[in-house]
UniProtKB/TrEMBL annotation:
Cell compartments where the protein resides: Membrane
Bilayer-crossing regions: 6-23, 35-58, 78-97, 104-121, 127-144, 179-201, 217-240, 247-271, 283-301
Source organism of the structure: Albimonas pacifica
Magnesium keyword on record: no
Gene Ontology molecular function: any one: calcium, potassium:sodium antiporter activity
Membrane topology, as annotated: Multi-pass membrane protein
Chain coiled-coil ranges: none
Domain Sodium/calcium exchanger membrane region residues, every copy: 8-144, 183-322
Chief location: membrane
Protein name per UniProt: Cation:H+ antiporter
Annotated GO CC locations: plasma membrane
Residues of the signal peptide: none
Gene Ontology biological process: intracellular calcium ion homeostasis
Amino acid sequence: MLDTWAPLLGGLVLLMAGGELLVRGAVQAAERIGISPLVIGLTLVGFGTSMPELVTSVQAGLDGSPGIAYGNIVGSNIANILLIAGISALICPMLIARSALRRDAVAMLAVAAGFAALAAVLPMGRAAGAGLVALLVAYIWFVIRQERAAADGGAIHDKSAALAAADPGLAPDHGGARLVLPLVIALAGLALVVAGGSLLVDGAVALARGFGVSETVIGLTIVAVGTSAPELVTSVIAALKRQGDVAFGNVVGSNIYNILGIGGVTAAIAPSHVPPEIVGFDAPVMVAVSLALVIFAATGLRIGRREGAALVAGYGGYLWMLWP
């Protein structure tokens, strides 16, 4: 039994450690060469907490395990909303900015619905992957333009703010150190992330075979929750600091990154079909819970503890329906 779990747990540890080193080094390197903190936050730091999902899904796709690759993406989005947003709201009710609801939460719902529809009618090939990545680039460009003009925050800004609050060492420091050390740190982190992703996928496949459970179920549950650990930690810390709006933005921003960025890169590098069980059940669940989060946020621009309890209970129900 230990031999079955050891690669999976070891992979998660390497992913978490490597992801932090990668973001820390990349942020410091970008700061040294004069990239603005806003752009750093919305790109390098924004991708930071999504790096475990990215490497794991790409590795699974290359290994011929689309159930793990797309189960990780869809399962992470479901866990982000039901589990992570639910726990965060239980700790501290979320106050939702109207701009975050109109732009970012609606964008999250739209990309979830678009991905579900695309997966149902087309294979996730390189053209589809390139289209998803192009949409993410356009979205980030649009947000950067808006935030430079209005400085009103936003979901992907809150995603980076939550990570910086959890570990101030990941925030731009405006220091004057040389460029070499940050690059070495980033490369070391990248090596750990790649090694961790490979271990995690191997462990997930072995676990599925050992328990007689499909790879898709493992991807939707254990792998998805494991790779969402950074979002859980950063959102809980934001909630404990009574920054419910940041916790909300972190979840919404992560879901947008997961579908457009991770789904797009995975499809571009390792084209495949999304497994029928995900298309028929889990992708519609992702759309439904995204809609529920938008409705909860729109009613009074607040997600209270009762809504948080309903979200967490919903995740328990989802696992009960999913696990054989």
